[in-house]
């Protein structure tokens, strides 16, 4: 049975007028709701102290293991308000299961999946007024995370751990319609190696990716695209999103799992693309194959997939000594259709034939 997260309401909630001002233009990751879920784990007690309380800073000893050895994982998912006012999560069981896999990889304790879900749902209930009424793809972004809080400088899995969930209202990722991004194909950095942490959603992967992101920006690109670390030129992912190609003969091709992050959006799109008549292939694709395909018109569209932006059209690539566009350099038709299809299910505008939605309120 799932643990309860009893609520201790904040005594100083954000005034309703200020909340409405924030919800009118929330951006991404800038504003936070009034509450947070927490639970703690210790080697002797296991998980205990589950609660929802006021959003507040953590108090950490300067030797806390997370600050030195980055023993930390996180998740990202959204709560969607439907037209009838009800509030839903999209495939949160997938996030719970991935959180458990990430925990195992980072030698963190396993949080039962039902306790992950209960912590997320308790926070959504406590902060229900923060779930935006969607005018243009607004949602409440939920950020579950777990870190090593033990005060100890020795190197071993920590014996004191914190699990928490915070929430941040999110506006439309694309404010002026669906625009495409360009990716910088880095030959300086790699994101993950075989046996490494590429498949875990951990903060360390992101810290290691920041220099590559700066390199992309120096070359006038929006995001970085990583190739495999073995030097075989295989496409991996863009650091926060998975990559998919669409071909003129109706295939959707995406790199196989292994060193990439197993995206819920990626998995969702593989299902929806097949239903839309595309033939889906999970297989290695080299940057040469992509370059040639873009040049001779076999690859007609490319997009990146992840919870935050859902589906992001990729219209161009740059690398050391080359640059090319995909199609006519505009977001593709099938990309836009897949994006609309996911959003229609998430916002309850279409049937949910796979039972992906989970009602909270
Ligand atoms: C979270 C994440 C994704 C996207 O996963 P979703 O479950 O679709 O949000 C892709 N790549 C990386 C590195 C990620 O951390």
Automatic annotation (TrEMBL):
GO biological-process terms attached to the record: isoleucine biosynthetic process; L-leucine biosynthetic process; L-valine biosynthetic process
Keywords: Amino-acid biosynthesis, Aminotransferase, Branched-chain amino acid biosynthesis, Pyridoxal phosphate, Transferase
Entry's Gene Ontology molecular function annotations: L-isoleucine-2-oxoglutarate transaminase activity; L-leucine-2-oxoglutarate transaminase activity; L-valine-2-oxoglutarate transaminase activity
Residues that span the membrane, as ranges: none
Catalytic reaction equation(s): L-leucine + 2-oxoglutarate = 4-methyl-2-oxopentanoate + L-glutamate; L-isoleucine + 2-oxoglutarate = (S)-3-methyl-2-oxopentanoate + L-glutamate; L-valine + 2-oxoglutarate = 3-methyl-2-oxobutanoate + L-glutamate
Protein family (similarity comment): Belongs to the class-IV pyridoxal-phosphate-dependent aminotransferase family.
InterPro entries (UniProt xref): Aminotrans_IV, Aminotransferase-like, B_amino_transII, BCAT-like_C, BCAT-like_N, BCAT_family
NCBIfam families: ilvE_II, PRK13357.1
Signal peptide: none
E.C. no: 2.6.1.42
Source organism: Streptomyces diacarni
Entry annotated with the keyword Repressor: no
Cofactor(s) essential for the protein: pyridoxal 5'-phosphate
PANTHER family named among the record's database cross-references: BRANCHED-CHAIN-AMINO-ACID AMINOTRANSFERASE (PTHR11825:SF44), SUBGROUP IIII AMINOTRANSFERASE (PTHR11825)
Name of protein: branched-chain-amino-acid transaminase
Pathway recorded for this protein: Amino-acid biosynthesis; L-valine biosynthesis; L-valine from pyruvate: step 4/4; Amino-acid biosynthesis; L-isoleucine biosynthesis; L-isoleucine from 2-oxobutanoate: step 4/4; Amino-acid biosynthesis; L-leucine biosynthesis; L-leucine from 3-methyl-2-oxobutanoate: step 4/4
Residues annotated with N6-(pyridoxal phosphate)lysine modification: 201
